[in-house]
Amino acid sequence: MTVKPKIGIVLSTTRAKRFADRPAQWLLELAGKRDDADFEIVDLRDYPMPFFEEDASPARIPPGNEAALRWGKKMAELDGYVFITAEYNHSMSGVLKNALDYAYTEFNRKPATFVGYGAVGAARAVEQLRLVLAELQIASLKHTVHINAIESIGMMMEGKTFADYPYLADAALVMLDQLVWWTATLKTGREMVEADGAQPAIRAAG
């Protein structure tokens, strides 16, 4: 029996009054209607990692921090990712960048996409994330969801919900279709290479 791929919806900020929980739950509900992948929320609050100060890259030696080890194990369990991201000064949150720095091989040859929220739908943060994920050998996908200022303010300050902006769900469904296809395809590819016992080395440049 084929095991369904596992996809993590990663909450990429830990602020007490963050908005991220709302799009994460909304996306989980949409994804829960599918039967071709299993989705779960991964909250960075559950992995309180210090600033990266390890002796070497995690591509070479495992980190010594317990939360970082748990984070790496969770990333290894997943076959694909959706990053729910805010935009901090035209980039991703510091806590997300720090978390990404704590793992390497656990991410390799897996796909990721994004749900961004903020002034320009976190478009600049997403572009920054694509650069970082490329170094981790994650395949970032074209189709994303951008929750712009009008929708963010409407939900945070005017009592509106995602149902008031149905085009966001339309975009999310396309994004999920693409993500599940890439996740299943890359999962199959990794398993075939592992079965052959001829997996080429994946080396970190940094």
The major β-sheet equals: 6 strands, parallel
How many structural domains does the protein architecture include?
Answer: 1
Which structural category do the helix and sheet elements fall into?
A: alpha/beta
| Termini Cα gap | 39 Å
CATH architecture: 3-Layer(aba) Sandwich
DSSP strand count: 6
SSE inventory with pairings:
Elements lengths: L5 E6 L9 H11 L6 E6 L22 H12 L2 E6 L8 H8 L8 E8 L5 H13 L2 E3 L4 E3 L1 H9 L8 H31 L10
Parallel strand pairs: 1-2, 1-3, 3-4, 4-5, 4-6
What would you note in describing this structure?
It is a single chain. This protein is α/β, with parallel strands linked by helices. The mean pLDDT is 94. Strands 1, 2, 3, 4, 5 and 6 form a six-stranded parallel beta sheet that branches. The chain is globular, with a radius of gyration of 17 Å. It contains six helices and six strands. Strand 1, helix 1 and strand 2 form a beta-alpha-beta unit.
